[in-house]
Design goal:
This protein has about 160 residues and is mainly α. It is about 70% helix and about 0% strand. The protein has 5 helices and no strands.
């Protein structure tokens, strides 16, 4: 995974005169500093989520709520011109890892440990239902927006004919 993120598919990284890596995606070419940052954020973010769930006293739900609240603050800060969006992006990028860890723990851990005890199949079903629901919502919004645009175009045409 590290090589896939860090390297690119130029001849410098290919052997025996190869011109590509074959079918499928080539390398991302992010470079070592960026690729290392992603790996570190994944590792430390997951560890932070586990700490919040297991050792902080917040429990699984409390840890997830803390990270969700922090992400909500970042969302509000997007409206503050003095705060660079790049900085907000990286904070949010890092915080998605502990959110995933705490939410995953909440869904899968036993009730005695503060979880819902859904197991991997149950939590996967919940996450799939959420994903499908969000996709359906996005599709409805897309159709509403398209209908609004069509209505605006038709109204404009009526107005132009009247003038």
């Amino acid at each position: 995974m590290s090589d896939f993120m860090n390297r690119d598919a130029t001849a410098m990284f290919l052997s025996n005169g190869a011109t590509s890596l074959g079918r499928g995606p080539q390398c991302l070419g992010l470079g070592h500093p960026t690729g290392a940052a992603i790996l570190v954020s994944n590792t430390l973010g997951t560890s932070m989520g586990d700490f919040l769930s297991d050792s902080s006293g917040l429990g699984c739900a409390g840890g997830a709520l803390l990270v969700s609240g922090t992400l909500a603050v970042l969302l509000v800060l997007m409206k503050v011109p003095a705060v660079p969006n790049v900085l907000l992006f990286w904070f949010a990028f890092v915080l998605t890892r502990p959110l995933g860890a705490t939410a995953g723990d909440f869904l899968t851990k036993p009730v005695a440990k503060g979880g819902l005890d859904l197991g991997t199949a149950g939590s996967s079903a919940v996450l799939l239902a959420i994903l499908v629901g969000l996709m359906a919502y996005a599709q409805v919004q897309k159709r509403r927006t398209a209908a609004s645009w069509q209505e605006a175009i038709e109204q404009e045409a009526v107005t132009r004919r009247a003038v």
